[in-house]
Amino acid sequence: MPDGIQIRRLQVIGEREIRALSDVLIDCVEGGASVSFMWPMTVEKARAFWAKAAESAARGERLIYAAEDGSGAIVGTVQVVLDLPENQPHRGDVSKMLVHRKARKLGVGAALLTAAEQGALAAGKTVLVLDTASDDAERLYRRQGWQYSGTIPDYALMPDGAFCATHIFYKRLQPGP
What we know:
The chain is built from four helices and seven strands. The chain has helices at about 15-30, 45-60, 110-120, 135-145; strands at about 5-10, 60-70, 75-80, 90-100, 125-130, 145-155, 165-170. Helix 1 crosses helix 2.
């Protein structure tokens, strides 16, 4: 765990958390991350996304984790989507792995990913899937033992409207000793 960083599952997401999570999302999109949003990235779009995610978490459909620095500020987040079709009760989707640019290269992403994997396993998931358009994220996933499955060209758009490919990864989870 990086010095001063704590990972916490957000079971109740209030105004403070929505504001902080929105700041992280906006920073990532403004930095060019392909995470479902286009420029201009507004506070309203970010808040609407997190309000919807909070409702989904309250219904038990997803896990949301936050990385907090020593002052308690949220500097990163990740989600595990649990609510999948009935023929996939063992699988979860990792989504919205976001680390504020000021907190990158400090191990925050690795700590969030570990928490997501442990939370998914505790929820009965044994296979996780994710996609990324980021080379830095791809290196992180490979270091964390994720398996590369393939690349889909022109899968999505970057925030500026340019097409981008996405890289698909999966990981089989094993219960600990």
